Amino acid sequence: MMFANYMQPYLVYAGALTLASVLLYPRTLGGGAVFSGWVPFNTTIKGKVSPEARKTPILWSHGIADKTVLFEAGQEGPPFLKEIGMKCQFKVRLPSFFQLLFCFRQPVHSS
């Protein structure tokens, strides 16, 4: 769990970097993947996306229990991409069995 806590803030930036790379690269890429990310741009980037870059498909996956980037913030990304003519598939990640098990193993402190 320590590794996940250490890496989580950096994964947020990885999603933003993926979006910037895909949107600003002048050619079509094989695809881009965003995990628990958000759109860090304003609407001015829309005019900078080339017609070829708009053909790059995006897979966007977001956990409903994400405490770093709220689920609602992640949901705003795919409509932004579709608005500029890109294909984006949004996947919801539910907590895994092991994550739930870890939560229930935490000691309960009585008052």
TrEMBL record:
The keyword Repeat does not apply. GO terms for molecular function: palmitoyl-(protein) hydrolase activity; phosphatidylcholine lysophospholipase activity. Keywords: Hydrolase. It comes from the Eukaryota. Belongs to the AB hydrolase superfamily. AB hydrolase 2 family. PANTHER family: LYSOPHOSPHOLIPASE-LIKE PROTEIN 1, LYSOPHOSPHOLIPASE-RELATED. GO terms for cellular component: cytoplasm. This is Lysophospholipase II.
